[in-house]
Design a protein that fits this description.
There is one protein chain. It contains 5 helices and 4 strands. It is α+β, with helices and mostly antiparallel strands. The chain has one domain.
Length: 110
């Protein structure tokens, strides 16, 4: 699973609270016990940082397919999944940034 969600910038603190809550998924009932954003990882960027809509923030998620049900439950009233054409473009920007960071670390540690 690789998905990008968009949220109005005014809701950034609400989104951060959801993402940071219960980082190990210990309080989640079955079938989501031990499922969390913290365990699967995520990236959050303001639209302006990505050259996208400055009135939005973008959440990039990667994880196993079963993580998708958890994501839908937690974000249903807060964020919307990007349109497919936007999602591909924005995900590529996140991936490129990650690749550049890896190259930089390789140069440092040789």
């Amino acid at each position: 699973m690789r998905q990008v969600y968009e949220t109005p910038i005014e809701k950034k603190s609400q989104l951060a609270a959801v993402l940071e809550a219960d980082p190990y998924g210990e309080a989640e009932p079955e079938p989501f016990h031990h499922v969390s954003f913290g365990r699967n990882g995520y990236k959050l960027k303001d639209g302006i940082q990505l050259g996208e809509d400055k009135a939005k923030i973008y959440l990039y998620l990667r994880g196993p397919d079963e993580f998708e049900k958890f994501v839908l439950l937690k974000l249903k009233d807060l964020s919307a999944r990007c349109k497919p054409e936007d999602e591909a473009r924005i995900a590529a920007k996140f991936d490129e940034e990650e690749g550049n960071a890896e190259v930089g670390m390789g140069a440092i540690f040789g």
